[in-house]
Design a protein that fits this description.
Helix content is 56%, strand content 4%. It is mostly helical.
Length: 114
């Protein structure tokens, strides 16, 4: 029973760390993205739009999957140090749908209170 409890705690810690990394990435990127986009006018982009943009920057061949090689060749490595933080699937690819979902959840304005 202890093994299962430890595994559950480890999974929760890993999920929290992944969400923290995504929040940090957004904070780091959003300043430069704001300064360089849309003529610097005051406006915001939705989390969905931002997630789409970041994913497309990593997905060099446009197949909606990001390989570790694509990740390493992208500017995202400046903000996310390890590919595994993006939760690749069993085949070793980050799927667009999963990335968008994780990113949007991490940047939801309707966060539950702790």
């Amino acid at each position: 029973m202890r093994k299962i409890e430890k595994r559950s705690i480890k999974m929760k810690t890993t999920q929290a760390a992944t969400l923290s990394i995504i929040v940090l990435v957004t904070a780091l990127i959003s300043g430069s993205a704001y300064a360089m986009s849309c003529g610097g006018t005051a406006h915001t982009h939705s989390a969905q739009e931002m997630a789409e943009k970041y994913f497309s920057q990593m997905d060099a061949n446009g197949d909606e999957l990001v390989s570790e090689a694509e990740f390493k060749a992208s500017a995202m490595t400046k903000f996310v140090q390890r590919f595994v933080a993006l939760k690749p699937n069993a085949a070793g690819f980050v799927e667009k749908k999963a990335f968008l979902k994780m990113f949007v959840e991490a940047h939801s304005t309707d966060k539950p209170e702790a």
